[in-house]
Structures are given as structure tokens and as C-alpha cells.
Amino acid sequence: MRVAVLGAGAIGAYVGAAMHRGGTEVHLVARKAHLEAMREHGVRVLSPRGDFTARPHVTDDPAEIGPVDFVFLGLKAHSYPSSGALLEPLLGPDTALVAAQNGIPWWYFHGLSGHPLEGRRVETVDPDGETSRVMAVQRAIGCVVYCSTVIEEPGVIRHLEGTRFSLGEPAGGVSPRCVALSEAMIEGGLKAPVEPNLRDDIWVKLMGNVAFNPLSALTRATMAQMCEHEDTRELVATMMTETLAIARAAGADPQVSVEKRIDGAWRVGHHKTSMLQDLEAGKPLEIDAIIGAVVELAELTGVPAPALRHVHAAIGLLNRTATAVPVG
Prior knowledge:
Structural class: alpha/beta
Strand content: 15-25%
EC number: 1.1.1.169
Order of helices and strands: EHEHEEEEHEHEEHHHHHHHH
Number of helices: 12
Domain Ketopantoate reductase N-terminal: 3-104
Protein name: 2-dehydropantoate 2-reductase
Keywords: Oxidoreductase
Helix content: 40-55%
Mean pLDDT: 95
Distance between the termini: 54 Å
Low-confidence stretches: none
Number of strands: 9
Largest sheet: 9 strands, mixed
Domain Ketopantoate reductase C-terminal: 197-316
Shape: globular
Radius of gyration: 19 Å
């Protein structure tokens, strides 16, 4: 098995290092500062499960790698449409794309047999089909990440918690390619269950992301602070309730209560969400897949979602003003 990690940041480099340690042929495609450190010292993982160093092949040129069996996408979803030049050299006839992204994937309605919106494009994450032209939906394997990592310094990944990467086919069921990938990930010390109904997992995780990510950026608050503030906790619960209704109208049935989901977030403690971290780093916010697509699905399915709409409007304006170039 040959695996390329396109976007070997905190999660991508961790997965690549783990799979390489398990015996898989892994190639990492990384940015320059991170790239040079990994070339010189390998990928150093600091983890409560035990530190280790792996030395997979590292490059910034996918043409050096050639076609692989699996491409693990460590990119943010909003960069998918512009990734064609990097992705093309890695694709063979049967190459699968493992989309380890937050939020609603571009393939969401692909393979959703019997649903009125089967085959419908989600414009927010696949505008005018730009993403699906680069990443054919037939290649997609879904991946829900329950793992937290950060780049402590170039080439050094600190693994904070979680090793689960749930895998699944858009069309459901358990495929040989998902099983093969799962086995390779497990050999590397990861948890990689193959879920016959991955959309349920997508929505369980999204219930947290859709509320806590934008609200944390708007308030600069940690997970615990949002849960402990009575009015904000009530807003989170409202957004999660709307999200559950949209999920069920969009062909999924996540089995989790709103209170259980909020309590789980509170136990995470004073953690900054990825969206708040991006805001503080001056990076564009990952709005479209996390909340924009949920609002779009509300419109498509006719589910009222006033709280989600209002927060989406506010975080959209924040993204515009925070990344605007100062005048003068």
C-alpha cells in the first residue's frame, strides 16, 4: 500500500508518522519550514501514549511520489478547489481520497440512495462543481477525526488526545478499500473503525463544531467558558437542536442528546477551538463546511434554523473584517 498525505500539518503528519511506524509506505507533502525540519529530523511525535519518531519520505513536489493507493487530505476544506495541481500527480485509476475534514463534505448527497436530494451538489463546499472537478466524488472515502494535535515547532507534533479516525463510504456499507485502509491505520496504533453509516458520525461531531467554533471566534472564549456561561450555553443548545433536525432531514440519524454533547465539550476544558486559533493566527476561518453548508442544507430540506442563520451572518462578517487589508 502506498499512501500520500497532502497537507502534512498537525493531523496529517501525525497520521502519516503513525502509519509509517506500522509498516505502510508513506509520503508526506508539506510546506517549506515544516518540510525541512521533517527531512532533517523525521516527524517527532510527543504523545501521552508514548513519544516516537518516524522518517517517511517528505517532499513539496507530489510529482516525486507518483500515483498512490490512498491520498489522506490534511488540507482545510476551503482549499480543496485549488488543490488540483498538487493532487493530479498522485492519482491513479483507483486512488481513493480520504477526506479528513471538519463539517459537511462535498460528497454529502453522493450515494445517499432513496433520499430526494441524492446526487445534489452542496454549493457552499462545491461551488459550481469546482471541488468535485478536482476530487471526483467516486474517489471519496469519508473520515471523521476524533484526534487533537498541534505543531509544537516545525517537525514536532504534540498529540493531545484521541486516536480515532472513523472511515466510511459515501454509499454506505463496508468496502474492501475501507477495510484495507483501516487495517493499515490500526497497525500504526490508530483507531480506525469502518462505519456503515458515516453520516451519523459526521453530524455527531458537527453538532459541536457548528456551535462552538463560530461562537468561540466571536467571543474569544474557550470550550469551558462557553459551557459555563448560561446564556451562551442556551444558544449552543438551540444551535445543536436545529442541527439535529437538519441532520435527520438530510438523511442521517445521529444518536446523541444535546445535553450529552454539551457536557462532553465542557469536559474538554479551557481549549481553544480551531476557528479561534485560526482567527488569532490571522488565517481565513473555516466557515463554509462547518456552518455555511449546514445553513444551506436547512434551506434545501425546509428546516427552520434561525439561530444558525444569525450566527453564520455574524461569523461571516468577522471573517471579512478580520482578514481585511487595512486602508492607508
